[in-house]
């Protein structure tokens, strides 16, 4: 009995020492996460429930007033629609261009490493610099219209047309991330089992059948990741839109990030701007969860 009691006491003491040791090692991480993640998030939640200009020491609590105002604001619905169209275009083109480029780079051609480096250059290029270059290229007297003039085509004022400006912003975003998406797909392509393709070849499958029936389904997890990454990039977009169009013309490219910036930093309505940020976060999480459910259901089938 004494021996059993001693063993139980020693086990409890050992467990207590483990808990203390774990707490000591976890404490720095908890303090850092609490101070630089949890506190700012909780503070932002509170700010979204107030009317605050960003400078006044007093934050007037108004509850859900900012959120109620959002759903009565036509500018918010315009910005939301612009963001949805922008995100849809970026997601579709990111998958298509990334996969196509990865297939080309995976082909047995000479100098593949050089081509991979060239296509990755837009990723490491400054967003501000890239947007400025595109802005000059799309100017009425810029490079694009100069090329069109050689074929006797009078190019439009690209950035002063609502839809053309939005298309230009979509293409710029896709171009900026095409190298990253291609590398993701290329990594996934090179990890696919060769035995599956060998079995398909023995069954007489053509190249297109292999691509459609084997490659695309096996790449669905990576496609899901690329779509989520493109979606998050689109909803977080600010720098490219700000430098290329400034949100214009007439709000045609004013994505949610632009509207949040304008209301918070230009108009001094930080409570309203923070509410827009949390609505954006909720939309991204909602769409991601739906995509995750759909992708999981397809995987089970």
UniProtKB/TrEMBL annotation:
Localisation per UniProt entry: Cell membrane
Domain ABC transmembrane type-1, first and last residues per copy: 80-291
Signal peptide (residue range): none
UniProt cross-references to InterPro entries, sorted A to Z: ABC_transporter_permease, MetI-like, MetI-like_sf
GO CC aspect terms: plasma membrane
GO terms (BP aspect): transmembrane transport
Membrane-spanning ranges: 20-42, 84-105, 117-137, 163-186, 270-290
Keywords: Cell membrane, Membrane, Sugar transport, Transmembrane, Transmembrane helix, Transport
Keyword check for Metal-binding: no
Main location: membrane
Domain of life (superkingdom): Bacteria
Topological category with respect to the lipid bilayer: Multi-pass membrane protein
Pfam families: BPD_transp_1 (PF00528)
PANTHER family in UniProt: ABC TRANSPORTER PERMEASE PROTEIN (PTHR30193), INNER MEMBRANE ABC TRANSPORTER PERMEASE PROTEIN YCJO (PTHR30193:SF37)
Family: Belongs to the binding-protein-dependent transport system permease family.
Protein name, UniProt field: ABC-type sugar transport system, permease component
Organism listed in the record: Gardnerella vaginalis 55152
């Amino acid at each position: 009995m004494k021996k059993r009691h001693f063993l139980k006491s020693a086990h409890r003491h050992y467990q207590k020492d483990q808990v203390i040791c774990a707490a000591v090692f976890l404490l720095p991480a908890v303090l850092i996460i609490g101070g630089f993640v949890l506190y700012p998030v909780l503070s932002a939640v509170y700010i979204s429930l107030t009317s605050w200009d960003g400078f006044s020491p007093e934050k007037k609590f108004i509850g859900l007033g900012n959120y109620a105002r959002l759903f009565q604001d036509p500018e918010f619905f315009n910005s939301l629609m612009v963001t949805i169209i922008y995100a849809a275009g970026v997601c579709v083109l990111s998958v298509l261009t990334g996969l196509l480029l990865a297939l080309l780079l995976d082909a047995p051609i000479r100098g593949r490493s050089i081509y991979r480096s060239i296509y990755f250059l837009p990723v490491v290029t400054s967003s501000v610099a890239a947007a400025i270059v595109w802005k000059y290229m799309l100017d009425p007297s810029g490079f694009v219209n100069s090329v069109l003039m050689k074929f006797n085509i009078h190019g439009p004022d690209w950035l002063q047309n609502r839809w053309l400006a939005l298309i230009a912003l979509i293409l710029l975003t896709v171009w900026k991330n095409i190298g990253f998406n291609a590398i993701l797909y290329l990594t996934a392509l090179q990890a696919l089992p060769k035995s599956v393709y060998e079995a398909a070849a023995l069954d007489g499958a053509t190249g297109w059948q292999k691509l459609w029936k084997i490659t695309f389904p096996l790449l669905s997890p990576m496609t899901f990741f690329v779509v989520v990454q493109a979606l998050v990039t689109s909803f977080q977009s600010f720098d490219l839109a700000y430098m290329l169009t400034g949100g214009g013309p007439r709000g045609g490219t004013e994505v949610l990030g632009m509207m949040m910036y304008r209301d918070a930093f230009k108009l001094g309505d930080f409570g309203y701007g923070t509410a827009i940020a949390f609505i954006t976060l909720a939309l991204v999480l909602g769409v991601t969860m739906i995509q995750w459910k759909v992708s999981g259901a397809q995987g089970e089938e």
